UniProtKB/TrEMBL annotation:
Residue span(s) of domain Neprosin activation peptide: 57-108
Protein name: Neprosin activation peptide domain-containing protein
Signal peptide bounds: 1-31
Transmembrane domains' residue ranges: none
Domain of life the protein comes from: Eukaryota
PANTHER family from the UniProt entry: OS07G0205500 PROTEIN, PROTEIN, PUTATIVE (DUF239)-RELATED-RELATED
Keyword flag Cell membrane: no
Keywords in alphabetical order: Signal
Keyword Coiled coil attributed: no
Region (Disordered): 92-112
Length: 112
């Protein structure tokens, strides 16, 4: 009688162990699916940020294709440090001596 009780106890523990193992596999596969779908969503969002619509496409004679992108949609400005960057069309200052015609030395007129 003790052997029958002992074998039923082992069988019961084996069934519980198999059920626990199956539930673990199911939960891991669901977690893996969620992780893969989250990763696919992140990749898609990253590609959407990188792919900028071209304003104009130019094909030059040697076969290269150039896509023109609006200046505010340049990929370089997607960097977090350039998020609030203001694009200056002209410099806000001119370094002294670079654009002053009076300070440019003319070597032809100074020769003896």
């Amino acid at each position: 009688m003790a052997d029958v009780h002992f074998s039923r106890e082992i069988a019961r523990k084996g069934v519980v162990l198999v059920i626990f193992w199956m539930l673990s596999l199911i939960s891991l596969s669901c977690a893996a699916r969620l992780s893969v779908s989250r990763q696919k969503l992140q990749v898609q969002n990253h590609l959407n940020r990188l792919n900028k619509p071209a304003v104009k496409t130019i094909q030059i004679p040697d076969g290269d294709i150039i896509d023109c992108v609006h200046i505010t949609h340049q990929p370089a400005f997607d960097h977090p440090f350039l998020k609030d960057h203001k694009i200056q069309m002209r410099p806000s200052y001119h370094p002294e001596g670079h654009f002053d015609e009076n300070k440019v030395s003319n070597t032809d007129t100074e020769k003896p």
